[in-house]
Amino acid sequence: MPDYVAMYKLLFNAQTDAIAILQKAQQDTEEMFISSPEPDIRALESKSPEGDKLSDE
Question: Which residues of 11-41 are buried (b: 16+ CB within 10 A; e: fewer)?
Fold first, then answer.
């Protein structure tokens, strides 16, 4: 007869280990994001092919 208690404990421990690994990875990547420098975002001027004329005539 299978030892269901041992099987349950093995599975439970593996699941909690996997959850801890995923939580640590999430915390590490969040810290990387928070500590990264601000991006250099700039608005670019938009010009239509006919110059600055944007309306249809």
Answer: eeeeeeeeeeeeeeeeeeeeeeeeeeeeeee
The C-alpha atoms of residue 43 and residue 2 are separated, in whole angstroms, by: 67
Q: Is the dihedral of CA 40, 41, 43, 44 positive or negative?
A: positive
Task: Name the pTM for this structure.
Answer: 0.60
The single residue listed with the structure tokens 């404990």 is 9
Confidence band (pLDDT; 50, 70, 90) for 39? Answer: confident
Q: Which residue has the tokens 């975002």?
A: 41
Q: Which helix (H) or strand (E) holds 12?
A: helix 4-35
d(Cα 56, Cα 48) in Å, to the nearest integer? Answer: 12
